[in-house]
């Protein structure tokens, strides 16, 4: 079988060996950079939005899962894990660090026996970056087992946890995702699928799940469809993944999105049973930030090309906020498609004012501010020869804490730019997120309680403009935002949260247990 990842592979090796060697080559440069960064700022807690994957009914299930996770690495750089099932036993391997750091030897992949596997790359939202929180999480149930990989964040997990602990449940992690296992274990239903579905009835918040059970590979998406989950097919073997880029790497076909509130049960013979466990909605309300930042540009999310959507954001931005400048440059990587759209619409030349190191990942999803700052400084360097004496308009997808924009503006000025302007391809982010993007507090967000002029001054640019909310919806071809039934989960701009926020409300009333565990998180 020749698939995109191993066109240059060694034909004398088996599939697992080729997958391991591909991951090893790809990981070496990244690892070198991580070591360098660690020497500079101390040991980082590697962190990043999670990616999930699952496959059933094929040999090499674990190797395919590791490749899928590698394609989803942009969603979580903190930790990675794979669980497999061989018909009798579950096997798991979970590590802190990148997929390529830990799944690049055939021995590790080979120990994950069976024709079904799931995997997870982690960007932590609840629970520190320690091994006990690394997914897939596994639990023994009555007469069977279950392994689970969760993308998203639950908004009532602390409340449920406190209640379960009072009733004698023993938690093994501080991750919100363990709630699925605890509630599933307590259900009186006979089948694992029914037990799991019963757990969903008590859970609030965002989840896209891949779950491994002896009854099959299960996929589930929360009733709103906040986080993405797709179904694919590899020569009759069902695949579940966060994004289509994970199908491309293994040569699998896209079948369809999993619907909000839907559970699919995939069997080893390729059959797929679908259950709509929450009322069917006309459309999902996916998190708008997936399209703006999280998803890979070559992915297709809810039927739309992420690259094309981001280009349209740039075109719309050009219409709303033109700029008198000599050149347009992206803040790479996520600013690139919008900058292309902005350049094409305005006619200003598209140039690279910043050169991006290929050995450093995403910085926003790093867990600590000092790592984020060092990351931006080492990831981007100015293209002095191009920008000296020029008026530059920089395009980025978003400003969250302002770490990137502040550093980059300073960098371009030092490199001799005559003017530095900034255009942002989404509105100001003024509300925290509780669904899987780690911005749970108002205080961290640059745009909270600041005017555009105050932000401009703080960032240190000559002018600053953001895309309007209407412009965002129009660029995504959704017309004007329908306030009664918005097409997206867009609370970061509007404050309109699509689920209850039980834990947040309890915290505001000071009615919440804040110390989840008495075991030090370093253990
Ligand atoms: O205002 P901030 O808190 O800095 O966050 C916003 C920045 O972070 C993201 O980039 P990141 O480096 O994470 O990823 P990218 O390489 O995909 O652009 C995003 O694209 C913005 O550049
Ligand atoms: N970003 C995510 O999807 C995180 C998943 C889960 N809440 C965790 O912290 O591990
Ligand atoms: Mg960026």
UniProtKB/TrEMBL annotation:
It holds the Pfam family Pribosyltran. Binds 1 Mg(2+) ion per subunit. Its cofactor is Mg(2+). Mg(2+) binds at residues 334, 396-397. Its EC number is 2.4.2.14. The active site is at residue 50. It catalyses: 5-phospho-beta-D-ribosylamine + L-glutamate + diphosphate = 5-phospho-alpha-D-ribose 1-diphosphate + L-glutamine + H2O. It comes from the Bacteria. CDD domains: GPATase_N, PRTases_typeI. Pathway: Purine metabolism; IMP biosynthesis via de novo pathway; N(1)-(5-phospho-D-ribosyl)glycinamide from 5-phospho-alpha-D-ribose 1-diphosphate: step 1/2. GO terms for molecular function: amidophosphoribosyltransferase activity. Catalyzes the formation of phosphoribosylamine from phosphoribosylpyrophosphate (PRPP) and glutamine. In the C-terminal section; belongs to the purine/pyrimidine phosphoribosyltransferase family. This is Amidophosphoribosyltransferase. It comes from Hyphococcus aureus. The lineage of its organism: Bacteria, Pseudomonadati, Pseudomonadota, Alphaproteobacteria, Parvularculales. The gene is purF.
């Amino acid at each position: 079988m020749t698939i995109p990842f191993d066109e240059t592979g060694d034909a004398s090796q088996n599939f697992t060996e080729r997958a391991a060697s591909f991951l090893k080559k790809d990981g070496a440069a990244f690892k070198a950079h991580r070591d360098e960064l660690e020497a500079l700022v101390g040991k980082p807690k590697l962190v990043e939005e999670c990616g999930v994957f699952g496959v059933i009914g094929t040999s090499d299930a674990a190797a395919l899962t590791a490749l899928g996770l590698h394609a989803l690495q942009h969603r979580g750089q903190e930790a990675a894990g794979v669980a497999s099932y061989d018909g009798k036993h579950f096997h798991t391997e979970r590590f802190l660090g990148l997929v390529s750091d830990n799944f690049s030897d055939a021995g590790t992949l080979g120990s994950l026996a069976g024709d079904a596997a799931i995997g997870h790359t982690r960007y932590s939202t609840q629970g520190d970056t320690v091994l006990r929180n690394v997914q897939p999480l596994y639990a023994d149930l009555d007469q069977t087992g279950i392994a689970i990989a969760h993308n998203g964040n639950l908004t009532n997990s602390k409340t449920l946890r406190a209640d379960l602990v009072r009733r004698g449940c023993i938690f093994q992690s501080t991750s919100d995702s363990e709630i699925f296992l605890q509630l599933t274990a307590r259900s009186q239903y006979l089948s694992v699928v029914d037990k799991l579905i019963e757990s969903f009835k008590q859970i609030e918040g965002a989840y896209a799940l891949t779950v491994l059970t002896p009854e099959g590979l299960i996929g589930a998406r929360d009733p709103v469809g906040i986080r993405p989950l797709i179904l694919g097919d590899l020569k009759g073997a069902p695949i579940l993944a966060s994004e289509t880029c994970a199908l491309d790497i293994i040569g699998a076909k896209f079948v369809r999105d999993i619907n909000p509130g839907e559970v699919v049960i995939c069997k080893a013979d390729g059959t797929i049973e679908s259950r709509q466990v929450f009322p069917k909605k006309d459309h999902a309300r996916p998190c708008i930030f997936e399209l703006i930042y999280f998803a890979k540009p070559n992915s297709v999310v809810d039927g739309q090309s992420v690259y094309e959507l981001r280009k349209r954001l740039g075109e719309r931005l050009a219409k709303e906020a033109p700029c008198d400048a000599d050149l347009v440059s992206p803040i790479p990587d996520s600013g690139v498609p919008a900058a292309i759209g902005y350049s094409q619409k305005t006619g200003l030349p598209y140039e690279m004012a910043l050169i991006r190191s290929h050995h450093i990942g995403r910085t926003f999803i790093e867990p600590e501010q000092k790592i984020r700052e060092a990351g931006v400084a080492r990831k981007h360097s100015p293209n002095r020869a191009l920008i000296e004496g020029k008026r530059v308009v920089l395009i980025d997808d978003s400003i969250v804490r302002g770490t990137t924009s502040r550093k980059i503006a300073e960098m371009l000025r030092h490199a001799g730019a005559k003017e530095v302007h900034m255009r942002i391809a989404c509105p100001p982010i003024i509300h925290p997120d509780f669904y899987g993007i780690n911005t749970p507090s108002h205080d961290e967000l640059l745009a909270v309680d600041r005017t555009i002029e105050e932000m401009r001054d703080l960032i240190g640019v000559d002018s600053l403009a953001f895309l309007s909310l209407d412009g965002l919806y129009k660029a995504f071809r959704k017309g004007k935002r329908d306030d009664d039934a918005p097409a997206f989960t867009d609370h970061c701009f509007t404050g309109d949260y699509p689920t209850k926020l039980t834990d947040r409300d309890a915290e505001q009333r000071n009615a919440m247990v804040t110390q989840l565990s008495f075991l030090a998180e370093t253990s």
